[in-house]
Amino acid sequence: MAVSWRLHRGHLARNLDYMQFSRTTLDETDCKLLAALQRNAHLTAQELAEQLHLSASQIGRRRQRLEAEGYICSYSARLDPRRIGLTVQAFVQVQMVNHAPDTAQSFGRLVDARPEITSAWTLTGEADYLLRVYCEDLPALNQLIHEILLTHKAVARVQSQIVMDQFKSDAPLPT
Question: Are strands 155-162 and 117-122 parallel, antiparallel or unpaired?
Answer without folding.
Answer: unpaired
